[in-house]
Amino acid sequence: MVSSFKIRLTSKGRSHRLCQLSVLIPLALGPIIVHAQSGGLTLDEALRLALQASPSTKAAEASVDASREAAVKAGQLPDPVLKVGLDNLPVTGNDKLSPTADFMTMRRVGIEQEWISADKRLARKERAQRAVEMEEGGSLANIARVREEAAKAWIIVLFAQRSLALFTSIEKAMTDDLGAVRAAYRGVKASASDVLQAQMIRTQAQDAVRKAEQDLVSARIALTRWTYAPVESVADSMPPLASHVPGLPVADLEKYHPMVLTARRAENLADADLAVAVRERSPNWTFEAGFSQRGGQYSNMISVGVSIPLPINRAQRQDRDIAEKSALRTKAQLQYDDALRDMQTEIETLSTTLTSLNERAAQLHAQLLPPASEQVELATAAYRSGAGSLTAVFNARRMLVERQLEITDLEKEAALTWARLELHVIPHATAATGSTTR
């Protein structure tokens, strides 16, 4: 919102010393803002600090590490089962509880192994890899979110600094004006009303400075939430507000745009789930081999066997699983199409908005500020010649300040739009490694 000074002045006093006042605010004839912050935290430094310090980034990477560990075992056979036992032990008669007296008593040791076919293990392994990629997608999406939010917080600090510099310059100008009017009043060249008007304008300028200081403190606190370190100031240097995102083809959106990337990987995971369900339709066999020892007067024995589950109701069990995964795959495909369309629409909207904001700011710079500055000069000249009023001078100056604030607000909105468009995309190097630390 554009701030403004709104005071209705009625004095008809004159002062030939007004030519000594700082009527032409330093900002009027040059850039809008006097860049008081020559140093400070740059945007790139803020983004780097945010990624390094963010607990959510570390948490997302830990989740990726966990999924990688889980994926290692996905293609493995189950552990073999060691089986020991004592068969046919007498519990009555003369041979009661004797493990060797009766010929049917056997001390048994064996091993059992569930066998999972190679194609089923491969399907499970592929599914686990898709799950890893899904977690990596979530981690990359979090990186993009942190970058975007940190950039927007940095931009808000930057424009809070610029607004404070603007209001500080105005306050200084008003203070100088008040001193000059008071001197003119003592020389009987200005009226008491002129002094009161200058005091009122200076008071409003001081209040605007206090408000700008408050806004800057709040903006610094918001930026600290992302950098995890106090920020005294940010460098007054914005990158060019141009984005490469609108030109990205769909294949690149799937690599670098979090929402599209996540939707594509969710579809890939659904494909892998369906493949696993199809392979699981066939049961796993279990093989067993054992050795049985009897008393010394009897022969020892070996046993072999195989256990084969009987899928007697595939239509209601295995086929239902396949139908479920197939429906979820269709869901993932449709969600991908929807996400892609949403992103293309949002990118187009943000791109046109950014272009419009940049053009409007440039147009106002070129066509609005010069006439407003000239109006201040004309009002000042008229007052000095006795043909104008001090009210007109202050009103012209107020209009100039409002135009400067209007342009500053446009530039801030353009910078925030650029951050939403450009910095929400995952950096190419980060997308290639899947991490900020690898």
Name its key features.
438 residues; alpha+beta; 4 strands; disordered N terminus
Question: Summarize this, please?
Answer:
This protein has 438 residues and is of the alpha+beta class. It is built from ten helices and four strands.
Topology diagram in text:
Elements (H helix, E strand, L loop, with lengths): L42 H11 L1 H18 L8 E7 L18 E10 L2 H69 L5 H36 L22 H7 L1 H22 L5 E9 L7 E7 L10 H50 L1 H17 L4 H33 L5 H6 L5
Antiparallel strand pairs: 1-2, 2-3, 3-4
Helix pairs in contact: 1-3, 2-3, 3-4, 3-6, 3-9, 5-6, 6-7, 7-9, 8-9
Describe the structure.
Helix content is 61%, strand content 8%. By secondary structure, it is α+β, with helices and mostly antiparallel strands. The chain has a single domain, classed as Up-down Bundle (Outer membrane efflux proteins (OEP)), CATH 1.20.1600.10. The protein has a 4-stranded antiparallel sheet, with no helix packed on it. The two termini are 43 Å apart.
What is the count of structural domains?
A: 1
The number of distinct helices, counting runs of at least 4 residues, comes to 10
CATH topology-level name: Outer membrane efflux proteins (OEP)
Number of strands: 4
- Main sheet: strand order: 1-2-3-4
SSE run: HHEEHHHHEEHHHH
CATH class: Mainly Alpha
